[in-house]
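Margin note: ligand = pyridoxal-5'-phosphate.
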Amino acid sequence: MNDTSRRVYDSVLGLLSNVDNPTPLVQLSRLVPFEHTKVYAKLEWYNPFGAVKDRVAWNMVQDAEESGRIGASQQLVEPTSGNTGLALAMVANAKGYSLTTPLSNQIPLEKRTVLRLAGVDVVELEDSLCPAPGAPEGAIAKANEIANQPEFEMLNQYANGSNPEAHYRTTGPEVWHQTGGLVTHFVSSLGTCGTINGSGRFLKEQNPNVATIGVYPTPGHDVPGVRSLSQLSQTEFFTPDKYDGLVEVENDLAFEMCRRINQEESLTAGPSSGMALAGALQAIPDEPGNVVVVIFCDSIFKYASSILNNLSDLGKAPASGSKREQLLDSMVENARINSDLTINIEDAHDLWQTQKPFVIDVREPDAHRQRHIPGAINMPLDELPDLAAFLPENRDTPMLSVCERGNLSLSGVLFLNSLGYRNARSVTGGTEAWDEKGFAIEST
Ligand SMILES: Cc1ncc(COP(=O)(O)O)c(C=O)c1O
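Resulting structure:
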């Protein structure tokens, strides 16, 4: 028998949180600028596998077992940004199942490595940070392909009702109980939207005046686990009409707030917690009686490379590979911050309309075919040297180098520079940001 008061458990699964064994709620005292409004962080890394997703993985497996959907020695497959994967891996290990996770190679190395350590068959793919449902070669398509084999089962956190239900059964009741029914605002970052939907439903059933606020990042963001507005609109559980507020937070602010939470509140929170808190502080007024609960999804420890990429004063990620690769990496990194080599999405659009630049799209052909800036010529980065003959003769031609999100295109612009092109720019935010701005887009 589990004894939560003495914290003695039959197995690690007994550590999974519920109203009798909740994750902690800690009041934020230093960085909250309010006089009246109380703000609490719910520390989800106190779940046994380190994240809010432990609740979801456990509930999806339990429901699937109860309904007979999965059985002994089951092979599971799940497209995941990491946290669901790790939680599923651990639940699978505890139950004798196996797990395959197709995932984006943009996911921090720490997460991909830990999944492998946990025995997962990790299939790395070119995809956005959060799997894009429509991407033909993305994690979701790959998982669907594997799940078509009869021996595999995909629990699919994006469409499985057991995901929000996990929060209806546990997170919502915990918050209600821990605040003594005084909670007025529930704030969650948005990924699959399971947390906000399930917890929100429970809390509103107790008190319809509890406000639910969803926080999402700007296009082209680097916050793992969450989705921008256009990415959200492709997911089944995103139901904005049911939320009381939606807040967009800039990538840099999310990382800066993450730093402040660690430094000022001594809480080892990760980037999506920074984003959620920044959104809460933007959206919620300072009024007597306000009791705010912000979900802090996971801790900072798996995000060293994200932190180094986004808080540049902390230094560069340790170099790996040959001297030549290191030199190239540092050239690309410098190109990122060199405003002569990059162009923001609005300016790129103006230039495209007024000066008809030569646009090269350095992604792989499939990604290009799916959507691209009209007129962009597909020159995959690896093939660029062989395609140089097709570039304009005039080295003063205005040129744009574009990819999915503005990373690969930096290498493209350096290559163009090396050939003497003086007016080449890499489009920051890439095709994704262009599309999200509603600018003209083409597919072939
Ligand atoms: C780090 C992190 N933050 C936020 C979220 C968003 O939670 P939800 O999927 O319930 O919307 C996730 C989900 O994967 C996550 O891993």
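The two ends are 61 Å apart (CA to CA).
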